[in-house]
Input
Amino acid sequence: MTTKFDTGPLSFKEKVGYGMGDMASNFYMGFFALFLLYYYTDVYGISAAAAATMLLVTKVIDAISDPAMGLLADRTTTKWGKYRPYLLWMAIPYALLGYLLFLGPEFGDTGKLIFAYVSYSLVMLAYTAINVPYSGLMAVIHPESGERTKAAQFRFIFASIGSLVVGASAKPLVEFLGGGDELLGFRLTIILFAVLSVAVFWYTFAVTRERVMPKKHEASIKDDLSTLLKNKSWLILVGTGVFIVVGLVARFASIAYYTKYYMNDDGSNVFLWMDQTTFIISCGLLGQLFGALITPMLVARFEKHKLMFVTNFFHAILLFFGFTISPDNVALTTIVHTLGIITFGIAITLLFTMYTDCVEYGEWKTGNNSAGLTVSASMFSLKFGSALGGALPGFILAAFGFVANQTQTPESIEGIRYMFNILPAVFFLLGAVLILFYKIDRAQLTQIECDLAERRS
Output
């Protein structure tokens, strides 16, 4: 039964608490997106092609684990709800496995690659076990789309803050804590982010609630999967999400190479404690924070899918322009990067509110709320996009003859320029085109919410 409390606005404390959960995730995932490929090639000594292949091959595990976790969460029943308990249970395993990823034992070339496969697979399984339920929580945190949009806004505000903290501090911390030993620096830095992640996940668990109480889930797994695959708007959204995440992660994974080898960043400070790399990353992530902040204002005026088209198309245009910027023009490079990440901040906030709209559409059509499965399948698509975005620069580096920590040939420099600008631009453009086929609009969503409110009460 729906109570008056259930339909009241989310408190500021709960919106902050929910949002901080994604900050905890981004202490790791932001770190991986920015530095994992660089760590593997320039620090741990794995070839670019081998690291790129590993990032893709391990997604086979996620293809099974993500939907399985969603199905499990949908069928979980505890005094704390369906999704919240996993924030409590999985925080410590997630933290420990993140540390294992950067342990960096000396095993020889083959041993290092095996260790990378095993450790990366394990940390991604832990990420699935905590982040799929966390994402599913947004579908049941409130019955109204407007309140869920606010929750999503806070989610990506704090996701941006988490990434910003990583972007602004990780490279200086690695240098300071390692004392010139990058492997030690990475290992000690990840310990700090591991401890913070546990504390923040537990806080999110403590202050959030599950207000929407779907009926006992009685549909079979086959029926759940069949219903999901018939949701055309969800399929369109998944494809769009893959494209824009590939674009973002490919650009992020390329920054360290672009600044080091093309812009000749020698590590000297250009602003406060920041070198060129840290400065460009930080400005971009401030832009993502700004994009998340203005999203609800934009949603109030424009249809979500039309806004998604405009932001992705504009981002692509910016990146095509970025290819023409000279290596000594740090200011213009930073401005173009920041403007692009502002548009991504809007797009990624929209993406997750639209996923929960698809959850409600599925419940409206079938009577079953499969938030866990819907979100987990969506999360797999984003993790696949993240892996592909992290891997493609590695393949490009290998194809253009990149050799780590050496003076690069003109061909390898050209490859670095392509992977930093043209590659992500193409994927953002594809995302802009695909979202034009999305069908759930504001009028239909209003009708869905009214009908579901009647059923639930």
